[in-house]
Every structure is written in structure tokens, then in C-alpha cells.
């Protein structure tokens, strides 16, 4: 049996509408119940549970908070977690068939595996230094191989450097970067070395220099550390009455694969049960059949968010959420400081006068 969930936490899914969507966790909404904000209660209720972690993706549950907080974290992960990307490109030589502007755009989208803490954030009027800029270069020439296989038509066998990959980008130390131990132990590199940038043929060459800076996805999508960042509410399915055995297969096919299962009950009869509600997409196909009317109740848990974060390669997937939380905390401190100054202005602060107005004594 699925875990019993308080009805106040459920969003109801009907055949043609969604109800009970508004938050009800505030004082006075439910008679006899108090939802006054309590920090200790929030600490006990808040949970982060990692369900799956791969080199590129993380799935985790965020439980015990409001949709506003979940969505704020999602938006911060997309647009405000800083990474490093190519910002300026100098094309000294390009005799390939690809235009300089197109090639520069492709280079800017190559994800770089560099710890953002190594650089200072870039500002529009900043001067490039070893503290805020990392340099890469590409210097390659396509030539014919001296002894290609007889009868081969594969360009990789006929020519040297016939395809230019992201792995051809080479870090060029600037200033004191070449003397820093952590830079030498883990030098800046590309996150996806097998990305094809351009193809060359004998006699064609590239000589390009790139400057990389630290910024965030709010300035340009190439700085965003995530390819996708999504969440959905946890499905909660209740079977209200037994499903006849001759309809059980049809009932199970009304849900996503793996959601429903079959087992024998105490009377040794086959019954349908909720096997894994997380896999359901809430297609509501079960409501299409009149024979299942009143047999099942579909809901979602309003404060249980299922996150899926796919890293674009600049950062490990399990490092993105902590960075987003750190950004969130800095924003909260800024708002808190502004509110404090608004409520308790300095005694020596001059009263603000709107343009065209005048001060009047009370």
C-alpha cells in the first residue's frame, strides 16, 4: 500500500480539470489548525533525496517546500549559476568552407570543464587579465596522408586533421596561470572532446585564439550549466474499489508502463495494485472508459517535487544544486539587507525628494 498522505497536500486530477491547486498552508484556512511559520518545523519537513546520479544527470526529490521555492531554484540553475565559456574569438586564419562568424558561434557553444571559482566574474568594461580570462587556441592544418589504404574513400584515412574536434582546443596559460599548482594539476579543457567543429581538406588551415570568461545563463545560454532542468509533482494514485479480473489488463494499460501491478490477495484472487506511482505521466486515459468510473482517484502531492537535472558538461550534475542554493542565499541576504535599511534608515540619511516635488513641514 502507498504511504498515506494528508488530503491537504493533494492536488486533484479530474477528467477535464485540475482542482485544489491553491496552497492552503497559511494560518486560518483550516479551522482548528495553525500553519504559522515555524523554522524548526520547516527544517524537519524539508528533505532532499537523490534518486539517481549519472555522470551527466541527477534525479532528486525536494519535499516539504512550496512551488515558489522549487521554481526559484530551477530558474537559478538555468540562468544564474556561473560557468566559463568562450566570449571573444580572434580568427587569424580560416580557409575552411565555414564562415568566420559561424565558426566563432560554434566555438562559443563548446562546454568547458573549468572550475568557475578560478576566475573573477566578467564585467562589461573589464580589462582581460589572468584573474578574469582564460585563453585557448586552435592551430591545425589538413594534409594528405603519405600512404593511405588502397581504394579507401574515408577522409579520416586519406587526410590528417580532416575533422576538427573540440579536443583540438588547447589551453594557453596567461600570466601567473602557468605557475599555479592547481591549474597545472587540472588544466582547463573541453567537457565534450568529440564535438565536431568543422571539416577540412588538404591545404585548409585554422589559426584561432579564444578568450573565455565567467558569466551566467542570464547573459547568454552558453553559460548555463544545465541542458534541461525540470520538475513535476509526485503522482499519488488510489484504487477505490476492486477491478474485475476480466478488466484488469485494460485498467493497467490505461497507465504508463510499470505504474500498476498484479498480485494475489488473501482470498487467492488476482488484484491490481499501485506498483510505482512515480512512473505515471497523469495521462488520465483511465477516465476514458465508463467501466472505471469511480474506481480510481488521481492526485499529485503539492509539496513533493521530482527534479531532473541534466548537466551541459561544465559542472558535475551533483554540484549544480548546491551552487544554486548558494546563489539563492546571496539573493536573500541582499533582500534582507534592503528591507532592514528600509525599515531602519540611517539617522544621517537625507529624505528622498521626487523630481519636481518639494518638502513640506507637517
UniProtKB/TrEMBL annotation:
Major localisation: nucleus
Domain of life: Eukaryota
All residue ranges annotated as the DNA-directed RNA polymerase RpoA/D/Rpb3-type domain in the record: 57-338
Pfam family, one: RNA_pol_A_bac
GO biological process: DNA-templated transcription
MF (Gene Ontology): DNA binding; DNA-directed RNA polymerase activity; protein dimerization activity
Entry GO terms, CC: nuclear DNA-directed RNA polymerase complex; RNA polymerase I complex; RNA polymerase III complex
Bias (Acidic residues): 348-362
Location of the protein in the cell: Nucleus
SMART domains registered for this protein in UniProt: RPOLD (SM00662)
Keywords, ordered alphabetically: DNA-directed RNA polymerase, Nucleus, Transcription
Region (Disordered): 342-362
PANTHER family, sorted: DNA-DIRECTED RNA POLYMERASE, DNA-DIRECTED RNA POLYMERASES I AND III SUBUNIT RPAC1
Family assignment from sequence similarity: Belongs to the archaeal Rpo3/eukaryotic RPB3 RNA polymerase subunit family.
Protein name per UniProt: DNA-directed RNA polymerases I and III subunit RPAC1
